[in-house]
Automatic annotation (TrEMBL):
Organism: Sphingobacterium zeae
Pathway(s) of this molecule: Amino-acid biosynthesis; L-methionine biosynthesis via de novo pathway; O-acetyl-L-homoserine from L-homoserine: step 1/1
Pfam families: Abhydrolase_1 (PF00561)
GO MF assignments: homoserine O-acetyltransferase activity; homoserine O-succinyltransferase activity
Taxonomy of the source species: Bacteria, Pseudomonadati, Bacteroidota, Sphingobacteriia, Sphingobacteriales
Cellular location(s): Cytoplasm
Recorded catalytic activity of this chain's protein: L-homoserine + acetyl-CoA = O-acetyl-L-homoserine + CoA
Name of the top EC class for this enzyme: transferase
PANTHER family: HOMOSERINE O-ACETYLTRANSFERASE
UniProt entry keywords in alphabetical sequence: Acyltransferase, Amino-acid biosynthesis, Cytoplasm, Methionine biosynthesis, Transferase
Encoding gene per record: metXA
This enzyme's EC code(s): 2.3.1.31
Function as written in the Swiss-Prot or TrEMBL entry: Transfers an acetyl group from acetyl-CoA to L-homoserine, forming acetyl-L-homoserine.
Protein name listed in UniProt: Homoserine O-acetyltransferase
């Protein structure tokens, strides 16, 4: 594992026309690039993840896993807005000498893909063997593939969509309402909005899981209990857990970026944008996903010419894309072997 920081030498122009004069992208690499640079696996992370894909996607990425650093050159970069050292609302604004906070430029998923194209150019990566992402990362991977700015041999997206749904936007707006109700969010302090962020995360968790998940993991054994329920403790715990590693400003801006996701913007249609993706594509869904239901992945697969669709059975809802790594490994390994991609050939 190797940690790096890329400093973009020119002003970065966002889709809305605003600029960031000192774009910084934090990224990590695993493994070694082979002589013909054909073994690149580029991972686009989800909403609050970091660049250490071996940490948050174990079972799929790691020694002796499907994507083994001994076989591949794996790159995972933090997106703009991320709390993990890429340019974000807590970065210092050179014009004021203070953090940006709410003055940070609003950005889109297309901006996330554009920034990582600059990183790929910097790394002299002209070909990605496998571009993979789930959720927000899947949105970014689709946008990047549709932009046709880099050669992608194989595209894999999990639990994502071609345009963010009214349902998903409603969840995100409800979370932002919770954050902005916390008056400290406007106090221009790194911990601003922390209580609101805790509530937002508890709300988000309901969309990541489902009725069955909670029934299986948070059911009470004591019929006499009147308070301090497992489900209540779980919501509090998950909220505090995020507050301890993230900030409300990054969360606020990144949920807005998710809302912006629409492959059809500036193109003739969503369908035509998908049809422009020519590489073999694997589209995976989780059958119990409430936030990105399977019909959204079916739509993607129907309009990418060389796409394969597969549904993963799981009780974990949207979080199944992070948890069901054994099933993901099976589906992805079959897809890659059918397209004659073998790790031994890449090293």
């Amino acid at each position: 594992m190797s940690k790096h920081t890329y400093l973009h030498p020119e002003p970065f122009v966002f889709e809305n026309g605003k600029e960031l004069t000192d774009l910084q992208i934090s990224y990590e690499t695993f493994g070694k690039l082979n002589p013909d640079r054909s073994n690149v696996i580029w991972v686009c992370h989800a909403l609050t993840a970091n660049a250490n894909v071996l940490d948050w996607w174990p079972g799929l990425f790691g020694t002796d896993d499907l994507f083994d650093p001994n076989d591949y050159y794996i790159i995972c970069a933090n997106v703009i807005g991320s709390a993990y050292n890429s340019s974000n609302p807590l970065s210092i604004n050179p014009a004021t000498g203070q953090p940006y906070y709410l003055s940070f430029p609003e950005f889109t998923v297309r901006d996330l893909a554009s920034a990582h194209q600059f990183l790929a150019d910097h790394l002299d990566i002209k070909r990605i063997n496998v571009l993979i992402g789930g959720s927000l990362g899947g949105q970014q991977a689709l946008e990047w593939a549709a932009s046709n700015t880099i050669s992608v041999d194989h595209l894999i997206v999990v639990g994502t969509n071609a345009v963010h749904s009214p349902w998903g936007i409603a969840f995100n707006e409800s979370q932002r309402l919770a954050i902005t109700t916390d008056r400290t969010f406007y106090a221009n302090h790194p911990d601003g909005g922390a209580k609101g962020l805790k509530v937002a995360r508890a709300m988000a968790l309901l969309s990541y899981r489902n009725y069955t998940t909670y029934a299986n993991t948070q059911k009470e054994d004591d019929n006499e209990k009147l308070d301090h329920y497992k489900a209540s403790s779980y919501q509090n715990y998950q909220g505090e857990k995020l507050v301890n590693r993230y900030n409300a400003y990054s969360y606020y801006f990144l949920t807005k970026a998710m809302d912006s996701h629409n492959l059809g913007r500036g193109r003739s249609s969503i369908e035509s944008a998908l049809s422009s993706i020519s590489c073999p594509t694997l589209v995976l869904s989780v059958n119990t996903d409430l936030l990105f239901p399977p019909q959204e992945q079916q739509f993607i697969a129907q309009h990418i010419p060389n796409a394969r669709y597969q549904e993963i059975e799981s009780t974990y809802g949207h979080d199944g894309f992070l948890i069901e790594t054994t099933k993901l490994t099976q589906a992805i390994s079959h897809f890659l072997s059918d397209h004659k991609v073998y790790a031994a050939e890449l090293v």
